[in-house]
Automatic annotation (TrEMBL):
Residues 18-73 form the Nudix hydrolase domain. Residues 179-212 are annotated as: Disordered. Residues 194-212 have a biased composition (Basic and acidic residues). Gene3D superfamilies: Nucleoside Triphosphate Pyrophosphohydrolase. It comes from Thermogemmatispora tikiterensis. This is Nudix hydrolase domain-containing protein. InterPro entries: NUDIX_hydrolase-like_dom_sf, NUDIX_hydrolase_dom. It comes from the Bacteria. Transmembrane segments: none annotated.
Amino acid sequence: MPLREHDARFAIGLDLLFVDDDRQQVALIRRQDEGQLAMLGEKLRWGEPAATGILRALREELGIERTDWHLHGAGLRSCRLGGLFGLDRPARDPRFLGATSLAARAQVLSLLFLIEADLPQLVRIARPGPTSSVLGLEVLPVAALEQQALFLDHAALIQQVLAAERAGHLPLLPVGSAWPLRRADPEPASDPESPPRRDRSPQQGDSHEHPS
């Protein structure tokens, strides 16, 4: 089936959340465009694996090269997938939804990666270049994020992912009451003559984010 004008097109964004080992602080970039704090972000290119996109974002935006020695020298220790966002909330990043050109129109899906790091070392090593969209890298307490005007919904995503990690529920995937089919509740023992029980319908307030 060919692509039609009304078919959805997706851009895959990478959001990199730098955290310390006890999850009390995060390192965020200061965006050049709006001057807002945000997770370091980059969009995947055609045919590019996520790991390659992460290394490219570190190199192009923070001046951190891809060699193993330099990654550890920059204080980067580990990386894991935190979740996928935007599949059930198309308008969470509206920048490309209303583009008049079909080539520029896209719904942004975000793969959020949790990167544990020595944050002071990372800030010392990071050197945004002249073509970078980053003004600088800043370390903030997690408890202070609610008082900051972060880019888009980044403050909520950070809190959600850190809470899910504490509960052992990473990665977060967009499943829940918004989906048309749900696993049926177990059938209770009943009289074989009684009519079959209908599956429970989704209730208002059910969570839209569940662990995989």
